[in-house]
Design brief:
- Belongs to the carnitine/choline acetyltransferase family.
- One of its GO terms (biological process) is fatty acid beta-oxidation.
- This is Palmitoyl thioesterase CPT1C.
- It is a multi-pass membrane protein.
- Its main location: other.
- The chain folds into three domains: 106 residues; 269 residues, Chloramphenicol Acetyltransferase (2-Layer Sandwich), CATH 3.30.559; 232 residues, 2-Layer Sandwich (Chloramphenicol Acetyltransferase).
- A hairpin with a 2-residue loop joins strand 8 and strand 9.
- The strands form five sheets. The protein has an eight-stranded mixed sheet with strand order 13-7-6-10-11-12-1-18, with helices on both faces.
- Helix content is 47%, strand content 11%.
- The radius of gyration is 28 Å and the shape is globular.
- The protein is an alpha+beta fold.
Length: 803
Amino acid sequence: MAEAHQAVDFRPSLTSDPGKVELSAPVLQEIYLSGLRSWKRHLSRFWNDFLTGVFPASPLSWLFLFSAIQLAWFLQLDPSLGLMEKIKESLPDWGGQHHRLRGVLAAALFASCLWGALIFTLHVALRLLLSYHGWLLEPHGAMSSPTKTWLALVRIFSGRHPMLFSYQRSLPRQPVPSVQDTVRKYLESVRPVLSDEAFDWTAALAQEFLRLQASLLQWYLQLKSWWASNYVSDWWEEFVYLRSRNSLMVNSNYYMMDFLYVTPTPVQAARAGNAVHALLLYRHRLNRQEILPTLLMGMRPLCSAQYEKIFNTTRIPGVQKDHIRHLRDSRHVAVFHRGRFFRVGTHSQSGLLSPRALEQQFQRILDDPSPSCPHEEHLAALTAAPRDMWAQVRRSLKTQAEEALEAVEGAAFFVSLDSEPAGVSREDPAASLDAYAHALLAGRGYDRWFDKSFSLIVFSNGRLGLSVEHSWADCPISGHMWEFTLATECFQLGYSTDGHCKGDPDPTLPQPQRLYWDLPDKIHLSISLALRGAKTLSGNIDCHVFPFSHFGKSFIKCCHLSSDSFIQTALQLAHFRDRGQFCLTYESTMTRLFLEGRTETVRSCTREACNFVKAMEDKEKTDAQCLALFRLAVDKHQALLKAAMSGQGVDRHLFALYIVSQLLHLQSPFLDQVHSEQWQLATSQIPVQQIHLFDVQNYPDYVSSGGGFGPADDHGYGVSYIFTGDEAITFHISSKKSSTRTDSHRLGQHIKDALLDVATLFQEGQRLKRRCRGSGEEDSEHSCGSLPCHTGGSRAPMTPANF
């Protein structure tokens, strides 16, 4: 989501002195460290790896195999063909009375070796099967014989009842694409936005790069792909996120919203109690690996590595580079209210506190009349400051207030009890929804601890929201957690008739611990400067959220089109009408088909999309001509999406090549130009991954309304969208008020018009458009009528866009 801003703003800060080291030493050292980090992660997860590493077998299968061998031995049969006798002879001779024990040990050793060989064979076979991506190319509703055979084999080798990390050992590694293919695809992607002269110059730089530097840089990437778990992901985390020196607020973090139109209870402490309890239930299931791995098509597993750092995680600032601190467990949350910090324990001797007990603790904080200490109220603004500044101040803070700082950074997550209401209001629903998004993305600049993996925001009227730090994982991971939280706290935990959590308070609980900060005078100025910068950054962000309810995924499905490709192509039309020109478009998609994969960029502004947009703006073009071009644009986007998902994208490969060039101190004008590109339109779809948790048909309002992020460019837009049920789409748009070229509300209107204009190309679409335009904008915001559609024409496979 917010990664587009980070991707174009990173600057590798490499401290190696080229005059004192060999040319290849820095890159070899980085490759070595990448592999070392991978192996350290494996060792730290040894026990979980053992439990899941034997999958699809189980420890009981060893016992069954051992028993079968013992039974065969008792029946004077030798399934080992003499191997057990040799093993028995090699064991120490403990005397005649231990002769039987030697036989049992020999059988156990043989069973273990045979069991391990079978498991290894299963892992290798499954990894080879999962390396096949031909299923991605299959048209929707059709399946070739090779894919059917592959599907059957995957089901056979996948086993039953997998745990969250069961497939990690069987996932293939992300391949390094051909550098010639990457450069060709790159030139194709920039052709629509460059003049003939600029394109010829770029093509010449590309050819020079291929001739002089590409083979060397590619060789190092191949070397890293053999040694490390993933050839790009650790560098992506380090250079794009952890080495960024910008403020996390707006530039890196993103937000997730509550239900759009309903609030289960208006009692702030009760909503906080249920939500915190639900989040900790999710953590408990995560620790026990009871969360099912995500499976595409019901059988193709995605990498689960990012789930490990959801809780107990903090991004610690450094002068040149941050680092992620993850604790194995934390039994408290840090709470902020009216400028004060509290430590709230989440467990008692009998286990996790009940929702009612947590509500009691939060209500005690709300009722606490004590004032904040001097400068304490704005202390968290330091986490919104540039990272170098915050790193220096934190050193003094750690010396003077180590206990309080540890209580916040060592918490399971951060909770902000906001003193103001939020959400949709009847008086001004549009403006209140925009303010809600702004409060989640930036707040006041000092009421979020932006370093925490995520902050839970509970507003005074019971509304919820998340503010998520981006470096540790991508949106689908926090989105999965958020879906579980909303469904659990609302449908399973529930509330009593008076709006409180169910159950009884616990009067024996100790009071929440107030945290006190001994702030030296030299920190006061830093807090003031950080607060000023945070307010400036917050005040400059323009958020606009609107639900588009004229049609949704069901209409797009009827047209046999990919829902994501449909929206992306319509966004090109909307942006062209807004700015009068085409621009590079960043759409994030996942590469979690591979071990430790994160994201790839789909460059949605294609030549086919531009041809469609030009046709729509040409009054001489007929609807049939525009529709034909629209289908070509959708098909092209689908091809790019599938290539990105299967590890054949452009941008991560170019990013890794650029990092290697910097480590080798090789200047590449082509890679420098690629790195300097600006993404004036950054987009992302928020996937709904657990639709079974919600009853969309009977309770359509009880669906998450998605979230958003800041723009990637000072003169650009950030656009995210989520399909809320089958008949609505919620859009989140951001831009900067300081830009005279952008206006979030203006783009929002263009998006509405573009979607209706595209729908008009299909049969019965004109009737809908006339009805929508005739009813006025106020009515159209709340219209939920479905759109009949023409089901003929070309088909496009339905594949998930962003997971």
